[in-house]
Amino acid sequence: MVEAALIQALPAAWDVPGSLRESMNYSLMAGGKRLRPILVLAAAEVLGGSLEAAMPVALAIEMVHTYSLVHDDLPAMDNDDYRRGKLTNHKVYGEAMAILAGDALLTQAFFSITQAHKGHGIPAERVLSITEELAIYAGARGMVGGQAADMLGEQGITKLEELAFIHTHKTSDLIVFSLRAGGHIAGATSAQLRALSEFGNAIGLAFQIQDDILDIIGDEKKLGKPVKSDEKQQKVTYPFFIGIEASEQKVKDLTIQAKEALLRAQIAHPERLLQLADYLMQRDH
Amino acid sequence: MVEAALIQALPAAWDVPGSLRESMNYSLMAGGKRLRPILVLAAAEVLGGSLEAAMPVALAIEMVHTYSLVHDDLPAMDNDDYRRGKLTNHKVYGEAMAILAGDALLTQAFFSITQAHKGHGIPAERVLSITEELAIYAGARGMVGGQAADMLGEQGITKLEELAFIHTHKTSDLIVFSLRAGGHIAGATSAQLRALSEFGNAIGLAFQIQDDILDIIGDEKKLGKPVKSDEKQQKVTYPFFIGIEASEQKVKDLTIQAKEALLRAQIAHPERLLQLADYLMQRDH
């Protein structure tokens, strides 16, 4: 469903310069797990919301995630040539176009959100809450803040708390947003939104630690990128601080904690989200 | 009013990495005419709207304008070292931080818009229309599309229509958005919004042509940047196509056209906007 909707995210009727459109679509359609849009849809589903109405928000979060990867890969940032086994955006379209494509994807995300109201009748009040939360979780207080802290900290992170700050904002914030946005679409109560946040913070951290573990013991073919890159870049990670075994235990503990948060909330059929938590813990790429 | 509000745009209480906050504030507070926020406030005012309620949207458009300058100045784009007589963002904070500061300012703009509802009681429906329009006018179909077309066209623009496309999207779109957004805040009718769009398109093009004229015959000290940069970069401009005299006449014609559009609409006191149109035509920097 997400792939089919992403293909149509930039309608042919829109007057967009050809190379800009190609550059945006290149990264948007470059694969990936589509984890964040799936979390939007799953959160809407477990609360009895409409998947169709949640789709514009699902697309929005994938656009934000994609823009962040395009800008992250730039020479001035991580300077990566490959992502998911394909050339990065700036290697294909040049740096200037990659910067503009990222800017356009971020802007387009906010357009997409508004369509949950205009196209699917979700009350304007709720859609405005989603807009506000995306701006918080993806901005200076959220994801971009996490990236800045990561960059600034590359010189030397010495405490696990500093690493936790970076993980929370670089990774968990968009995951928490996705879950809450799905909740808003379904008209979630405050208590349900809190449970979704708690679930998201726990699986977000578990997701990041699992990433760090896979970078050490994963299979390059399955990952689509070279392993041991953190070690080469002298990146400080959870396994670096507490070892692989304790990191694996932490992933398990966080997954249990996430599930418990969900089970405490008044959600009739939380199965889909519980399955996703297990899938993330067990993934090998 | 705008300067005072901009200083408080990133509250001290927000947990934002220090250098990111500094980098954002550096460009946000680097001066400039504040034309776009003033247009938001003036459009709200002539239609009897509240300036306080319009301010979050005024700040939003200045954030979008600022982010576009920060990214435009990057080495991969225009590679400018100075803007308004000051070092550009990446010359002070480095390229990576300039990219992130731009991303954060764009994201923060959408947060700011939502506060017109949350903080000032403008109906959610109207604020959502402003959100949607910002995403259209600032995105791939708007400003970013204009920048991409400008970049792609640098190899050789041969028609005035190609130049008009670039001017419309690079410059007029944000001006049209500013006026319409002020209109939405004040509860403008469809006819009034159309008049504001027409006014904005005309003064936007006049503004750009005046910029091109000043680049040829202006005073470096007043402009805060070197003149004849378009000629040096072999940039195609209106004066290049039709000469300075015809360009000056075009600015006058567009200003009259802008005022007439406004006078045809049912607006009781359009004075403030009419004054702004004259100011823009007569400016020397």
From TrEMBL, chains A, B:
Keywords: Isoprene biosynthesis, Magnesium, Metal-binding, Transferase. It comes from the Bacteria. This is Polyprenyl synthetase family protein. The keyword Transferase applies. Pfam families: polyprenyl_synt. Its cofactor is Mg(2+). Belongs to the FPP/GGPP synthase family. Coiled coil: none annotated.
